[in-house]
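User: Can you recover a sequence for this backbone? Please restate the input before giving your answer.

Assistant: Of course. Working from this structure:
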């Protein structure tokens, strides 16, 4: 009798559990598509507002950061990668609408829920679209707009720095930018930076026209810029001499100083190397070293300016990214290649750039010391002597 009672009790509990589960499942599945989302093609932002914005190129550009022609060009490049097939149950979201959702996220940094409500799609749909589209943008544009420079291209970059920034044999300016993110789960202090926020690091090499030529994304926020460079593929290539920089050549008008290497310019956070110049450390410096620091900082401003343009254009950099670290890295890479895409497809952005001046450096506090190889020290001394002699510019006496 006890066994029968026990069995009956277990059966009753099982039936109660299964009926409760069915009720919860039915409650979750009450809507195949929510009633608000069903009106996407009537009231969604893409189908109403954006179609009206197409009639006003200026407003369209402020909304997406691309004008109508650039949007269509980008869509033609990535459309095949981001298109999805219709099914018997529903029509897929078009490639143009998927691209619009992604660009709106990059341009504003709004939450997925805000974007979802505007476009009348699901939050999980926005999440998948952003991750897919930023990957497609990077894959489809990187080969044309951010390929690793060849020796000839490095030489062309050096000519640009000499012409615009009065720094010969310079193949780029290097710096790192912290991109704020929400603290990843179980990450400890790896992403916690000196600013008191959590971040990943964008390390970039920028040319004289404010275009990104090499980037490394995903370094831990706690790591210094020098450490990020050392751990990156670019840094390893620079150390091993496999970056295909042009051969050594004399500085303009200074053949007697002998051939000098092509260099990159950086701030005091980076080490001094034969192909990587950083400022002279110290508070009180001889005039030739002050001039060198001034000229180096003037050339190095291009990378700071490029970061400023990037953050002003893609407002996601003004917020803390509330996405997975892998997605944040893809978003950063996509905005960098889009930055180059816009600069090279917008008339006037590549030719008429204003030259920037910087304040003299002697008033700065002591710069950090950094041991360097003798060859690197000799190269920096040669550049310093050159900038005070054959390579002097008219405004230097005030430095």
């Amino acid at each position: 009798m006890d066994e029968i009672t026990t069995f009956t009790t277990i059966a009753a509990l099982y039936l109660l559990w299964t009926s409760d589960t069915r009720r919860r499942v039915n409650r979750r599945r009450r809507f195949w598509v929510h009633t608000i989302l069903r009106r996407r093609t009537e009231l969604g932002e893409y189908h109403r507002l954006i179609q009206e914005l197409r009639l006003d190129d200026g407003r369209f550009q402020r909304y997406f950061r691309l004008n109508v022609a650039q949007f269509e060009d980008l869509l033609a490049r990535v459309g095949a990668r981001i298109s999805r097939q219709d099914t018997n149950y529903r029509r897929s979201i078009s490639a143009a609408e998927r691209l619009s959702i992604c660009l709106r996220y990059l341009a504003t940094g709004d939450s997925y829920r805000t974007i979802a409500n505007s476009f009348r799609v699901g939050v999980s749909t926005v999440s998948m679209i952003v991750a897919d589209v930023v990957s497609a943008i990077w894959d489809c544009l990187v080969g044309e707009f951010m390929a690793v420079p060849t020796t000839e291209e490095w030489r062309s970059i050096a000519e640009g720095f000499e012409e615009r920034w009065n720094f010969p044999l310079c193949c780029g300016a290097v710096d790192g930018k912290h991109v704020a993110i929400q603290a990843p789960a179980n990450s400890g202090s790896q992403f916690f930076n000196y600013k008191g926020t959590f971040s990943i690091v964008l390390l970039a090499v920028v040319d004289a026209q404010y275009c990104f030529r090499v980037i490394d994304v995903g370094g831990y926020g706690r790591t210094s810029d020098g450490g990020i460079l050392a751990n990156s593929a670019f840094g390893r290539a620079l150390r091993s001499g496999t970056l295909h920089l042009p051969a050594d050549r004399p500085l303009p008008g200074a053949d007697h100083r002998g051939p000098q290497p092509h260099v990159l310019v950086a701030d005091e956070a980076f080490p001094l190397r034969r192909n990587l110049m950083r400022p002279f450390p110290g508070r009180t410096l001889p005039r030739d070293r002050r001039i060198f620091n001034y000229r180096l900082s003037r050339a190095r401003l291009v990378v700071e300016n490029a970061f400023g343009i990037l953050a002003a254009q893609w407002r996601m950099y003004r917020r803390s990214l509330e996405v997975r670290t892998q997605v944040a890295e893809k978003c950063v890479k996509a905005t960098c290649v889009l930055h180059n895409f816009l600069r090279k497809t917008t008339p006037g952005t590549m030719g008429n750039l204003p030259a920037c001046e910087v304040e003299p450096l002697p008033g700065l506090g002591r710069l950090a010391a950094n041991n360097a190889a003798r060859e690197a020290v000799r190269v920096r001394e040669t550049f310093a002597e050159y900038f005070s002699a054959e390579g002097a510019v008219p405004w230097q006496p005030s430095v």
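That completes the design. DSSP finds 14 helices and five strands in the chain.
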